[in-house]
Design brief:
Elements (H helix, E strand, L loop, with lengths): L1 H10 L10 H8 L7 H14 L2 H12 L1 H9 L3 H20 L2
């Protein structure tokens, strides 16, 4: 059900208000192959639907500091564990919808 809702929302172009677009900006600034406005914008759309603004800020920091992602993934802190679960869901959704 969650996947269907996400797909429908993306198809109709839902744009939440007042999002920081942190992930889109970090994506565009990255040196990754294939990073372009369309792809980064799609990834941001998925982030807006699956991550809080705080989660997005943290996830955007991974573009410039990949070790930070590894540290959080391996952390024993409960808040990091919960974030990582949300982040994995975001990643899977972005992969599916932004190909």
């Amino acid at each position: 059900m969650k996947s269907i809702l996400l797909a429908v929302t993306l198809m109709v172009g839902f744009v939440p208000g007042a999002q920081a677009e942190a992930i889109e900006r970090a994506c565009l600034r990255s040196d990754r192959n294939g990073a372009n406005r369309a792809l980064c914008g799609c990834i941001q759309d998925v982030a807006d639907l699956t991550l809080t603004a705080r989660d997005q800020k943290l996830a955007a920091s991974f573009f410039s500091d990949p070790q930070k992602a590894q540290d959080i993934r391996q952390s024993d802190r409960r808040t990091h564990e919960r974030f990582w679960e949300r982040y994995k869901e975001f990643g899977a959704a972005a992969k599916e919808y932004c190909r």
